[in-house]
Amino acid sequence: MMPPNPQFEQLDLASLPATARDMAQAIGLRKALRLVEVLGGTTFPVPKRETKLGEMRFAVLAGVVGVDAAEVLVRRYGSTDLYIPRCADALRRVRDTAICREYDRLIQTMSGNQAVQRLARANSLCDRRIFDILKQTPVPTLNVGGTGQLRLLA
Fold first, then answer.
1. Domain residue spans in the chain?
2. What is residue 5's predicted lDDT score, i.e. its pLDDT?
3. What predicted TM-score, i.e. pTM, was given to this entire model?
């Protein structure tokens, strides 16, 4: 299993679709998000484990979330087609907030344009998208102009 993305620690459970919230309550947020990362946007036939095909599907689940969590999913959703949401909106908000916080940190040691270039490369986004994120994402600690800008207003 891949290590959890540290940005997920900022994720608000209430911002997830109902199915993802239910899965997170059953197997934990990290494992539910791992399931979203690997199988998000698909309908997965959760097995009862009564046939060879059911065992193969269980192995897929166990490979993603581990045996214990897969067993919980089988008990809860066995013999149903479970739609696993992508959670794109919630994950995008987490990413955008992290970008703004990192920008705020970076401009302490470099220009805003240099920070934007670094963030664009680090997040595989274009610089225009980073600028849009910085304009649109409300972050209380965002310091767009740096400390020098604040002195101009004094």
1. 11-86, 89-144
2. 56
3. 0.71
The SS3 call for residue 14 is: helix
Instruction: Give CA–CA dist 119/14, Å, rounded.
Output: 28
Q: Is the dihedral of CA 67, 47, 35, 76 positive or negative?
A: negative
Q: What is the residue whose two structure tokens read 């310091």?
A: 143
Phi, psi of 44 (to 5 degrees): -110, 125
pLDDT in tens, 35-67: 999 999 999 999 999 999 999 999 999 999 999
Q: Which residues fall within 8 angstroms of residue 48, CB to CB, at 6 or more apart?
A: 54, 74, 78, 79
- DSSP letters, 93-143, are HHHHHHHHHHHHHHTTTS-HHHHHHHHHHHHT--HHHHHHHHHH---TT--
Which of 108, 110, 99 minimizes the C-alpha distance to 137?
99
Read off the pLDDT of residues 25-36 as tens digits, 9 standing for 90 and up: 999 999 999 999
- Specify whether the CB–CB gap between 142 and 107 falls below 8 A: no
DSSP type of residue 146:
H
pLDDT tens for 68-87 read 999 999 999 999 999 999 99
> DSSP 3-state assignment of 45?
strand
How high is the mean pLDDT of the chain?
Answer: 88
